[in-house]
Amino acid sequence: MMSCGKIKSNPLSSRQDVIQFLSTLLEPLNNHFSPDNAGFSLGDTCAHYGPEIARMEGFSRALWGVFPLMASGEAEHFSKHYIEAIKAGTDPQSPAYWGDAGPYDQRLVEMAVYGLGLALLQDRLTEQFSEKELSNLYHWLNQISTSVMPDSNWNYFAIMVQLGFKRAGLPWDNDVINQRFEMMEAYYLGGGWYSDGNGRPRDYYISMAFHFYGLIYATLNEDDDPLRAEELRHRARLFANDFVYMSASDGSSIPFGRSLTYRFATVAFWCAVAFSGLDVLSPGQVKGIILRNLRWWQNKPFLDRDGIMTLGYAYPNLAFCEDYNSPGSPYWSLKNFLILAIPEDDEFWLSAEQSLPAMKEKHAIPQASQLIMHPADSEHVYMLTSGQLELNNYVNTEAKYTKFAYSSLFGFTIERGRYGIKHAACDSMLLLSENDDYWRGRRDCELVSVHDDYIWSRWSPWHDVHTDTWLIPCGEWHVRIHRVDSARNLKSVEGGFAVMNGTDIFTPDDDRESRLCAGNGTSVIRDLSPYIRRVSGYVITPPNSSIMFAECAAIPTLSGLVPQGVSWLVSAVAAEGEVNRKYTTRPQLSIRDNTLCIRHAGTEKNISVSL
């Protein structure tokens, strides 16, 4: 428990504080080197690769902190253990050998950090190896040059290894770098955005992989590859103008997509911005985003009683994890400590921490099919989205990608089963059932259109049930319009944001509205449907459903029947961190001339439809 106390008491305001924060995370790992001294045994849960690879993964991910700490010039006592483990792990004659990498091998993922270490430390790293030991390291890493890998952000792992070889004076292959960059060009979407492979998501991997590695490459290889370096920096600038909207004023980020168990890696992009000196925000603003995020995390129970990072998000939660998450996976969070490689006399460290820059209340990102609401001075930032899906169908894919809204304050819930509405993660979703208590919602979208004022999508939960959905921001509210064309008689449940369960939380203003007042805020959903009347209520989910808190979650709901034919379901949804928030104004809906007119706070938005 000592590690937890050190984490929570750290003011996280200076470079020395950040070094202490990292040291506190690394110290407990010293007790977990495996007997052969080339990996960590951090737990007994399993990933889709075996425990030996999981041990080297956990060890390797710690190096994202160790190598920048070594580069910082600060006195540290961790490196000797790690250097000896690297020697053993890359020696084919050693019983601790990490093994040869096969196609799509997890070991290929972990090679990137060794490229970083070689690139940052150069002689300071290689001189600690004998000629034979360095040859072993080189040949083990060089497997990645010809390995078969997913056509995704994994291409950067090969680039990082070649960059490390080059900067450390080892044989390197520029053709590998060019080939991998060319492959990734196929999924550049413009505006600074990539998809993580053709047709794949636009989630945090774009920030903590593509631009993170790209800015390292642009910084450390700028002299020899100036045109590519400038293009990478240009794209990162464009991306930054969108990505800054994902951060709230309290330091939290909007949780969305897979791999959220990497936790503070959601701001690793800004650490690469600082490392590269990218001219996009002021150094003080970048510093503020990073340090506020670390402070937000320091008050969350993400460490176990021994100080080891757990699997989960805001608390330990195995039900939330993907099948590629081993006990050591969360240590990819240490990517943030790239900032320790920035000299202490750099403007980044000398600048005073600043608040977020001025931003628009509403910001559309067409490349990511997102519309982000970022009210001034609000700690509740939320995203409306449509059209993303992880085709690999990892655990809880629908919950992580296909809800209508994602919140920095309330997060989202995950499914605990399809049978029964309390298990079905109905927050920020419209779920439909054919009277059997098995629930279906939006998964993939057939069509999506992103506008400055709304997002429209078309989706079909059955082959003969087709739904058009409009998501329309209205200040602190957003309005959802669903046109359901069904060949079946269905039941429907639509949920607002999930809050923490408690006593006396259900406070309906009338039978068309459900408003839940909980210890962590207020959540409300109001029925505006023109032709079908729905019943207000709420759902209590099982514990460990919310990614933000372990307690049962409470979701305000609207329920009703959807008969065969065309039905229109309309709701207004809001949530705020204020307990027992009173909403004095609500969006209003009227219909005229095949137009849905939404009025709120003196403004009017019109959606042309065929009624």
SSE topology:
Layout: H1 2-9, H2 15-26, H3 51-71, H4 79-89, H5 106-121, H6 123-126, H7 131-141, H8 155-167, H9 174-185, E1 188-190, E2 193-194, H10 204-220, H11 226-243, H12 268-276, H13 283-298, H14 347-350, E3 362-365, E4 370-373, E5 382-385, H15 397-401, E6 405-407, E7 430-433, E8 447-450, E9 455-462, E10 465-474, E11 477-486, E12 490-495, E13 499-500, E14 513-518, E15 521-527, E16 535-540, E17 553-562, E18 565-576, E19 588-592, E20 595-600, E21 603-608
Helix pairs in contact: 3-5, 5-8, 8-9, 8-10, 10-11, 10-12, 12-13
List keywords for this structure.
single chain; 611 residues; alpha+beta; Glycosyltransferase; Beta-galactosidase, Chain A, domain 5; seven-stranded antiparallel sheet; five-stranded antiparallel sheet; 15 helices; 21 strands; elongated
Explained architecture:
By secondary structure, the protein is α+β, with helices and mostly antiparallel strands. It folds into 2 domains: 2-350, Glycosyltransferase (Alpha/alpha barrel), CATH 1.50.10; 362-608, Beta-galactosidase, Chain A, domain 5 (Distorted Sandwich), CATH 2.70.98.70. Helices cover 29% and strands 20% of the residues. The protein is built from 15 helices and 21 strands. The chain has helices spanning 2-9, 15-26, 51-71, 79-89, 106-121, 123-126, 131-141, 155-167, 174-185, 204-220, 226-243, 268-276, 283-298, 347-350, 397-401; strands spanning 188-190, 193-194, 362-365, 370-373, 382-385, 405-407, 430-433, 447-450, 455-462, 465-474, 477-486, 490-495, 499-500, 513-518, 521-527, 535-540, 553-562, 565-576, 588-592, 595-600, 603-608. A 7-stranded antiparallel beta sheet has the order 8-9-10-11-18-15-14, with no helix packed on it. Strands 7, 12, 13, 16 and 17 form a 5-stranded antiparallel beta sheet that branches. Strands 3-4-5-6 form a 4-stranded antiparallel beta sheet, with no helix packed on it. A hairpin with a 2-residue loop joins strand 9 (455-462) and strand 10. The protein is elongated.
